[in-house]
Amino acid sequence: MQNIKLFESPKIIWKEDATSFLIENSLPDIPGAWKLMLLGDGSPTRHLQLLTKKETKIELIGMNLDHDSSKERPQEIHQLQSPLIRRQVWIKSNDMTLAWAESWWNSREVNTNITNKKEPIWKNLTKDRSELFREVDAIAIVNSDWLQKEFDCKGPFWSRNYRFFRNKKPLTIIREVFNPYLENWLGKSGIEGYL
User: Fold this and answer.
1) What is the pLDDT of residues 54-71, one digit of tens each?
2) Which residues are within 8 A (CB) of 9 and not within 5 positions of it... i.e. 6 or more apart?
């Protein structure tokens, strides 16, 4: 296991559980394309590839034992059996960073599920064609200096977190933060209405 210093989870400015939108059918006032990106249960890495017409790759930042217990972690973390591994990546198309992601895994299961650490999670998890279920847990607005630097723009940024399930058990918890540059393909994000 690597021991590279990972970024602190970005500061959450605003957050809403996805169930309040989906169960009550009171969808947020976010433009349609962004609503799909934030609340849809498809693969954002694949969506980014479709938007850019270029292969989406990841740049692994690191995978470490997670000793962090900050309030910025998704509340669903307790559903995974400890000890946990935290993985962070930049999601890129050519040299453009389109998103950042972090995920939490049970330390005994991570190597079984991520056999190629330089590939996106969905490629790792779908290579054997096993059934997976994705559930979006929350959308949020987050910010951090290091995200602003990498995205080369001022924050805050749209974020979401979700779980992958296999055999009805949580497999991993993932947080993604999207670069506002995606507005070039998706249109205005509507983030200013939540600040």
Assistant:
1) 888 889 999 888 876 667
2) 68, 70, 72, 73, 102, 175
